[in-house]
Amino acid sequence: MAKTSPVVPPIKLSEPTESGNDTTETSGRLKHLFRDQPLIPIGCAATVGAFLFATRAIRRGDSMRANRFFRYRVLAQAATVLAIVGGVFMERKMKQEKRMEQITPK
Questions:
Q1: How does 31-44 read in b/e, with b if 16+ C-beta sit within 10 Å?
Q2: Tens of pLDDT, residues 27-56
Q3: Least enclosed by CB within 10 Å: which of 28, 60, 67, 70?
Q4: Phi, psi at residue 16, to the nearest 5°?
Q5: Which residues contact 13 (CB under 8 A, 6 or more apart)?
Q6: Which pLDDT band holds residue 18 (cuts at 50, 70, 90)?
Q7: Cα–Cα distances in Å, from 25 out to 1, 10, 14, 21, 64?
Q8: Where is this gene product found?
Q9: Mean pLDDT of the chain
Q10: Nearest of 21, 37, 91, 32 to residue 99 by alpha carbon
């Protein structure tokens, strides 16, 4: 007599977002990120762009232009980090306000 293993239900790795979309797909995650924190992907793209232009300038031997683009990269990175920190604080503030609305009687 062969033993049968119990049937295990599948594990759901992520919960649907407020809009009902599943965030496991890349396009869903990107849409969610652009909607909630649009400055972060823009800052990342600016950082990568500045780095690529600096690399191109180095290959062409234009060190002054390369240094200028490296400075732009640093500024773009700083702006991205500030956007991340600001987003974290805003998210925390929104959660606290939502919690206070639930606690406070009307």
A1: eeeeeebebbeebe
A2: 787 777 778 888 888 999 999 999 999 999
A3: 60
A4: -65, 150
A5: 24
A6: low
A7: 43, 18, 10, 9, 42
A8: Mitochondrion membrane
A9: 83
A10: 91
Side-chain half-sphere of 57: how many Cα atoms within 13 Å? 15
- Give dist(CA 76, CA 4) in Å, integer: 58
Q: Is the pLDDT of residue 81 over 80?
A: yes
User: 96 versus 33: which is more confidently predicted?
Assistant: 96
Residues β-bridged to residue 22: 16
What CA–CA distance (Å, rounded) separates 74 from 78?
A: 6
Give kind and range of the element (H or E) at residue 16: none
